[in-house]
Amino acid sequence: MAERFPYGGQAVMEGVMMRGLHRASVAVRSPSGQIVIRDRELNLARRVFWSRLPLLRGIQLLGDALVIGMWALMFSASVTDDQAEQPLSKGQTALLVATSVGISIALFFVLPLLVASGIASWAKLGIYSRETIEGITRLLIFVGYLILVGRTAEIRRVFGYHGAEHKAVSAYEAGLPLTVEHVRPFTTIHPRCGTTLLLIVVVLSIPVFALLGTFPFWLRLLSRIILVPFVAALAYELMRLTASKATNPIVRGLMTPALALQRLTTREPDDAMLEVAIAALARVLAADGQTIETQPIAVDIRPALTS
């Protein structure tokens, strides 16, 4: 039996982006209540080539996810603000992605290293104690960040759309029609969630960086910058493996903390949010030639872009 393509996406401002084999589609609820959709055609040949290369495929996929995610966010901002879309040039997109990655590395990797090194120096602790403090600090910053951003009303709505995305994908994977009635009962938790991937990156980085514990400080600092893509690629392969074995009791037990963490980044969506997620998923399924029963939803489709 052929492996089913792992459809998924991300939540954006008042909307959901879904990604398939041939197309990524972002659906956004405008201030007038209409669902506005923009498609982005994908390079299938490039994707198939990279998918055959373990580790490297994770780095390529994450890079694509950052670029497409930034595009979807910018489009959603233009729709929700009821303003004309201002497409970003490749240079502007690269700058935004680089800035986002740089801030993330500084916050979740460099800062814990500085905190742990300072405490270890002050308390005259050994290497293992220092590495343990760094790992705990990284985990606390990550969880604390999710709790903090989730307190704002705007982000809580984004988390609602995140839950809608998971429900729609789960209904499709269960072989059910994509209607609000069939999608609504599903859980907001999904094993292939980006939150799960981020937690795996945070946890996996602890033993990886601990191997470099005897190195000089400047080399350890450099490793927190240049090895992040490698750690992320390992995390992707691990999540890919566990997602395919999600029904295994042992795997499910190991993934329980990661799945529980999704409760910080998802909220129970309302029916209007579910309609948006269904509209986005239906677009990518149609582009891949899949016929699936879905409810008719009035949408405004904007001209497609080419990736």
Concise summary:
With 307 residues, the chain is of the alpha+beta class. The protein has helices at residues 44-51, 56-80, 90-123, 127-149, 153-173, 180-183, 194-210, 217-226, 228-244, 249-261, 271-287, and strands spanning 8-12, 15-19, 23-29, 35-41, 299-306. A hairpin with a 5-residue loop joins strand 3 (23-29) and strand 4 (35-41).
Structure notes:
It contains eleven helices and five strands; from the N terminus they run ββββαααααααααααβ. It has a five-stranded mixed beta sheet with strand order 1-2-3-4-5. It has helices at residues 44-51, 56-80, 90-123, 127-149, 153-173, 180-183, 194-210, 217-226, 228-244, 249-261, 271-287; strands spanning 8-12, 15-19, 23-29, 35-41, 299-306. It is 62% helix and 10% strand. The relative contact order is 0.19. Helix 3 (90-123) packs across helix 4 (127-149), helix 3 runs antiparallel to helix 8 and helix 7 (194-210) crosses helix 9. The chain is globular, with a radius of gyration of 20 Å. A hairpin with a 5-residue loop joins strand 3 and strand 4 (35-41). The chain is an alpha+beta fold and 307 residues long. The two termini are 30 Å apart.
Helix content percent band: 55-70%
From the spread of the alpha carbons, the general shape counts as: globular
Task: Please work out how many helical segments DSSP would assign.
Answer: 11
| Rg for CA atoms | 20 Å
In percent terms, what proportion of residues is strand?
A: 5-15%
Q: In total, how many beta strands?
A: 5
Strand arrangement in the largest pleated sheet: 1-2-3-4-5
Termini separation: 30 Å
